[in-house]
Amino acid sequence: MPHRLFSKVLVSLSLPLLFLGPSTGPERSGRVFSQEAFLSTPGDHLVVRVQFPNRSVLNDLARFLDIFEVNHAEGYLVAMVTREEYDGLQRRGLPLEIDAPYTERVNRPYRKDLLRTETVPNYSCYRTVDETYAAMQQLATGFPNLASWVDIGDSWEKAYYGGASGKDLRVLVLTNKSRPAAGKFRFFLMGAIHAREMAAGELASRFAEVVANGYGSNADITWLLDYSEIHILPLGNPDGRKWADQLYWQRKNTNINNNACTMYNPPFWNTQIGTDLNRNSPSHWDGPGSSTLPCADTYRGSSPGSEPETQAIQDYIRSLFPDQRGPGEDDPAPPETTGLFITLHCYGNLVMYPWGWTDKKCPNQPALQTLARKFAFSNRYYVQQAVGLYATNGATDDWSYEELGIASYTFEVGRDFFDYCTLFENTIWRDNLGALLYAAKSARRPYQNPAGPELFNAEAINGAVLPGGAIQIDAIADDTRYYSGSQSEPAQAIQEARYSVDAPSWVSGTTLYSMTARDGFFNSSQETVEAWVDTTGWTPGRHLIFMEAKDADGNWGSPSAVFVTILGPNVIWLPMVLHS
Fold it and tell me: Is 123 among the domain residues?
């Protein structure tokens, strides 16, 4: 990825960059840094550790280098460079070391028929573009009252390169269509805007499957689809992803108008082609953290929003969320703002919130940080402002917050671009499912509800009774479910808890009933709350009971729900655990 540090442009004629073997992340076994490895390492690209003396130098390097990792404590970054770039960094006087095993792995050739659509070779946990699209279409077909597979625009190849080789950008919309759309709040989740970030797309797709299949069996998913819309764009860069499906290290889209970087002749592929879609948004475009040079992996594009993928994503997000923030840079979105946006990336085990372009805190920073720490309680990721990694501009989450005021986040999941499937299945997927479900819950009031207590282990002790019978419900209300590493999040005592039947508290006309603390006193930041529910007058069948709690600062948390059943002549009771 040539840049202004160097004297000439290098167009690589080597085989593409690859990930072929399993990894264990930033501390991956077998990592060996040495300058001597330079002479004996084959291939035109190197994975290097670069020491930087201060953040200013780091941000300057981020304009040009394809950075994989940053270790601020020890003052180094890990990046992929050409040999010419390596020489230029040496001339600049920056200490360099080569990761020889990693370098050998990324230069290892792989040839494959691009028309085949089998699961990504050597990574059975990741579905290809075609497999992902087929799975989402299957959800729409199998759950016609819940799911729609919506075309929101064209990829670059579909728009400009003859059409046949490109893809529509598609969103899976999940909601109970039998309920009116008016008043439903919205959560938008995007995966893999950078093509090679495999876990990001698979995580988004699996979340869609859990939500669709959970309606009617999981009480929280059921009420979410009754009262909200979940919009999932599993692959934000499908053209680039089709190359990553073949184990190429494609990051950007496949815009071939930057001809100096183009060699569109499979199976040879220059991964420097295209525009970085996460540097192409209008938010502070043409600033730090991106490159003006088309061959750089952080190339920002010819103009703000120049790429059809960027335009499609932004137009769709604008159609979902009203502008809830003032025009001034320091104007906060109001506390009652609705809507949540998450973009999934790889890698680094981070939850990040705006801004990425400046050290200055964004106007809603305290509330954004609080919700981020709720996410981190599930995935145990480190929480930080996005600029804390390194400065960027034109990022999607900065744009969605800046333009619309919605709570916006980047999750950097996992430890590699092509994480080993055992890590994905046992850690990345497991840990992030809870974070994404909480995101969907909090999308109604993301700047308010996360400050309140979270309810978990919600349960109906005797969940099926005859009409007029009493049902015992309980849950744990907890105001401490945050994870922030060495940082802290205020916690207060639980002050109140309540429940409602068949509608949440915010629906006009809903009757609210008090719950009590099991120990008799609301005086702790964690309380077991309970109530006996009188079912006199209820109709036979299944009902939802919503529960929520408030802390001593007056913050109500998001609700949790349980199913209960009123037995009758046409209701058959099968013993089962009834919980959220």
Answer: no
